[in-house]
Amino acid sequence: MAAGRLKDEKADALLVTFSANVRYLCGFTGSSGALLLWSGGARFFTDPRYTIQASREVDCPAETVKGPLLKAVADRIRRLKFKRIAFEGARIGFDDYQFLKDHLALGAALKPAAGWIERQRMVKSDGEIERIRKSVRTNSAAYERVLKKVRPGIRESELAAELDFQMRRLGADGCAFETIVACGERTALPHARPTAAKLENDQLLLIDMGASQDGYASDMTRVSHFGRPKQKIREMYRAVLEAQLAAISRVRAGRYASEVDAAARKVLKSYQLDREFIHSTGHGLGLEIHEPPRLGKKEKARLEAGMVITIEPGVYVEGRGGIRIEDTVLVTETGCEILTPTPKELVSL
Questions:
Q1: Fewer Cβ in 10 A, N or C end of the chain?
Q2: Domain definitions of the chain by residue range
Q3: CB neighbours (10 Å) of residue 327?
Q4: 2-121: what fold?
Q5: CA distances (Å), 77 to each of 10, 12, 42, 45, in order?
Q6: What is the pLDDT along the chain (349 residues), one digit of tens a residue?
Q7: What whole-number distance in Å separates Cα of residue 316 and Cα of residue 187?
Q8: How far, CA to CA in Å, does 341 sit from each of 64, 138, 173, 218?
Q9: 174 and 95 in contact (C-beta within 8 Å)?
Q10: Rounded-to-integer distance, Cα 302 and Cα 253, Å
């Protein structure tokens, strides 16, 4: 547990305020909460809107606060006579940091605790893996429902709205991120936002979508084409698919994240497309859509069994379009399991 590091870090307590980390540690799913952990104890703070919810979700003593949560936290720290308080340095705003600093007892100090909980979250429990599987299945089912109805003339924004609707209809809490729908030359924009542009014949269609279900994310990208794709498009697609399969083949416990990225880049270089691959090969996911580890060129992290990652190489050519193929993948001791069930061939609509 994150609190177990307190002795090594010479801290008396750890304050957790980032919602995903709070949820991971104590089960609270609301938007207003703070968790104070110390050796042999824990206390959760929330406001009156969440009193009933906290009583049902939180697995430690909970306190309802009228007024700023951080003031109640600082009061508790003073009563417990803690002097060194670790906090999530990358997750807290300056105003909140200054408020805490001003309200602690004289002689007490704040100590940044970078990534303590995020590192713990990288390896998923069996229960978390099952939730991600469920999210993946919902995501793919929504995609397959909508793809059957896609016709020229529909707007990117309409298609995105239908995908979002189907995810919810199938049981998702919502989208894990803003659904990406891009057609034609706009597929060369890796994070294209849906517009009023209408889908036309002889165009690429790229969809990048993810469901959030029971708090856990999924992520998938698929590319299709209206009509028979030209030779250059088919070659681009073949290159990206080969790169994705090569990267997947390198996934296993003990491998460096950079090795997976290198496998994808090696294939794309053989097609002289490596310069058009402008992002990393993948990332972890779970309670957040982007979590460590990152699968990039210089990443030194080793993969571990139980990590859930994406594998998503892509190439983007201005004036022609872009292709990205992405699966959600579970790392195992002997390799990996591709969780995404949606076929990966280039579909002609």
A1: N
A2: 2-121, 126-348
A3: 26
A4: Creatine Amidinohydrolase; Chain A, domain 1 (3.40.350)
A5: 16, 10, 12, 13
A6: 566 678 777 899 999 999 999 999 999 999 999 999 999 899 999 999 999 999 999 999 999 999 999 999 999 999 999 999 999 988 999 999 999 999 887 888 999 988 889 999 999 999 999 999 999 999 999 999 999 989 999 999 999 999 999 999 999 999 999 999 999 999 999 999 999 999 999 999 999 999 999 999 999 999 999 999 999 999 999 999 999 999 999 999 999 999 999 999 999 999 999 999 999 999 999 999 999 999 999 999 999 999 999 999 999 999 999 999 999 999 999 999 999 999 999 999 8
A7: 7
A8: 44, 10, 20, 12
A9: no
A10: 7
Q: What is the largest CA-CA distance in the chain?
A: 72
Among residues 16, 10, 8, 48, the alpha carbon closest in space to that of 34 is found at 16
Amino acid at position 346, single letter: L
Exposed e or buried b per residue across 202-231, where buried means at least 16 C-beta atoms within 10 angstroms of its C-beta = ebbbbbbbbbbbebbbbbbbbbbbbeebee
180 neighbors 206 (Cβ within 8 angstroms): yes
**CATH 3.40.190.10 corresponds to the domain 126-348:** no
> In whole angstroms, how large is the CA radius of gyration of the chain?
23
